[in-house]
């Protein structure tokens, strides 16, 4: 599906494989990731399509909002800077 020229807001896709653990563990990882993006949505570019794929060696019992924030916040901030820089240069 192609995005229209009119920005609809950012979108999030999560791909948590069975190798991560049981359904309960996978759902917990997804809940924590969704919460991170909900709390930091003001930092995300409006037209971003984000796909989060947790690392294979991830131990689901250790996933916390603090750990996810520590890992992803620098990446999200860099994404925002790139989007701002692109918009300033007039690139599509």
From TrEMBL:
Enzyme class: hydrolase
GO CC entries: ribonuclease P complex
Transmembrane region(s): none
Pfam families: Ribonuclease_P
Signal sequence range: none
Keywords per UniProt: Endonuclease, Hydrolase, Nuclease, RNA-binding, tRNA processing
Statement: the UniProt record of this protein carries the keyword tRNA processing: yes
EC code(s) of this entry: 3.1.26.5
Coiled-coil ranges (or none): none
InterPro entries recorded: Ribosomal_Su5_D2-typ_SF, Ribsml_uS5_D2-typ_fold_subgr, RNase_P
GO MF, one annotated term: tRNA binding
Gene3D superfamilies: 3.30.230.10
Cited PANTHER family: RIBONUCLEASE P PROTEIN COMPONENT
Protein name: Ribonuclease P protein component
Classification lineage: Bacteria, Pseudomonadati, Thermodesulfobacteriota, Desulfovibrionia, Desulfovibrionales
